[in-house]
Amino acid sequence: MPFLGRCIRLCQLGLVVYLVVAVLFTTFRLFVLPFSALLRSISELSLAASEPPSPFSVFSGFFWILQYLAGAMVQDWPWNPERTSTSSSELSSDSVFWESSSLALKHGLGQPEPVAVPEALFLSKAFSNSMHPSRIVPFYYRASGTVDSEDITITTLITSNRFKVFAQLAERYEGPISVTIHVENTTTRISELLNQLHTLYTSSKSMATHVDVHLVIDSFDRQFNTWRNIARLFARTNYVMMLDVDFALCTDFRRAIRKSAKMMGRLREGTSAFVLPAFEYTKLSEGTDQRNFPKDKKSLLALIKAGRIGMFHASWAAGHNSTDYDRYYTAKPGEVYKVTQYQSAYEPYVVFRKDGPPWCDERFVGYGGNKAACLFEMYLSGVSFYVLADHFIIHQNHLYEETARKNERKYNRKIYSDFKEETCLRYFKSYHQRNLLNTSSGYNLQSECQKIKGVSRLASQIITEDT
Ligand SMILES: *[C@@H]1O[C@H](CO)[C@@H](O)[C@H](O)[C@H]1NC(C)=O
Ligand SMILES: *[C@@H]1O[C@H](CO)[C@@H](O)[C@H](O)[C@H]1NC(C)=O
Ligand SMILES: *[C@@H]1O[C@H](CO)[C@@H](O)[C@H](O)[C@H]1NC(C)=O
To answer: Which domains does the chain have, with CATH numbers?
Structure first.
């Protein structure tokens, strides 16, 4: 039967052609795609949209060819079903890699290929004390300028109502900035904020040159310490400055520190943090435009004398008075003096080594105690504070959300006193086991923790049990 024979031959031909195309396509998907980061991330987007087709299944190969052809026809390859909305796999989908030690490899042991761990898994452990679920997107924008590892990165956090003042900070600093931006996890808020952010980021050259942006997408407001740690973790220099975005930088502390071999040496040791004294205008209306702020200490002192500027948050003296403002006013040019009256509510703005000092405790959420907790643990760990007497920063006034602040302060006060006790005991144990308790680096710990009732007794118990 010639008709049936022709049919069979036609079918065979069709099958062969199909197999060749499927094999070519599978090869493309398996070996070409992995080398293109862009194509990879977008293909993951389509994978997320449909069931992941196995590249070995003939049927799905056909499916992919159709997608490819359809995509090519509308000039939109790779095929992308939802271009307009922000898909989570579009934001980032990296892995973290671990290699065998070079020593093991030298002996022919281990494996040369690194082990890959999904970035999201790694970050969920890195921030396991924070509220969950939460999605962290490091380097959503990455600065185009080159970064000198010996530079000082400003680490800070913003929400969308601080975009304007953040732009001023970037213009003024002209150096590396690592910023965490919180994005509320609702579809409309995410796209709205990312659009605003895009406008902000592309609006100024210093922004695109110097600022790295990291996103936190979740439902939790005011997780300041988590956001601080993210900005610090992804800073690309050896030194950081922890700053609140509404402070105006008035003097060039960055250059002063970098050109002093002595100060750089102390930063490198990791046991010194340099304090930038903080001020504010006494009249709210005077302090709203940083273009009018003083730019050198002489002009600052004149304004202080006239009563127009004073220490930051004078109504909550414990927050900054360890800086010792009287000493600051009379210090000689170039002086750097040690903070000798530290107390646990002290929360100055400091420059310190990125790697080494403890991180901010992420259990603090909301106003009150959060920044002081960062500095308390730093102090206990053996970092001492030194005031840069030629430099200063000034708060740019704005209205606070007072009700939220009051309530959060109330319960954070209790959390903070528990935290201090627990931290003291942890460090007592650590210093004791490293035989450092009676050394000069244990001085901060000894002197500060003695102030807490009952801690000395518990600490001596820990020490006796261990010995
Ligand atoms: C964000 O919201 C979506 C939809 O409600 C949810 O599936 C997802 O788990 C949320 N992600 C985070 C990090 O909260
Ligand atoms: C700072 O203020 C607190 C509380 O008002 C006070 O107890 C302390 O003595 C002050 N310290 C200095 C150095 O002025
Ligand atoms: C530390 O020194 C004090 C005296 O200066 C001494 O009483 C104490 O036992 C010492 N502690 C340790 C753990 O060596």
So the answer is: 10-83 (no CATH), 132-426 (3.90.550.10)
Q: Establish whether residue 375 lines the binding site of ligand 1, counting it when its CB lies within 6 angstroms of any ligand atom.
A: no
User: 0.85 cut: is pTM over it?
Assistant: no
Q: Which secondary-structure segment (H or E) carries 429?
A: helix 402-433
- According to DSSP, the residues that pair with 157 across neighbouring strands are 180
Helix (H) or strand (E) holding 387: strand 384-388
**Cα separation of 159 and 161, whole Å?**
6
pLDDT in tens, 212-251: 999 999 999 999 999 999 999 999 999 999 999 999 999 9
Ligand 2, pocket-test mutation among 275, 323, 343, 451, most atoms within 8 A of CB = 343
Ligand positioned closest to the Cα atom of 464: 3
Q: Specify the DSSP class assigned to residue 321.
A: G
Closest ligand 3 atom number to CA of residue 463:
13
SS3 182: strand
What's the farthest any 2 CA atoms get from each other in the chain? 111
- Higher pLDDT, residue 154 or 452: 154
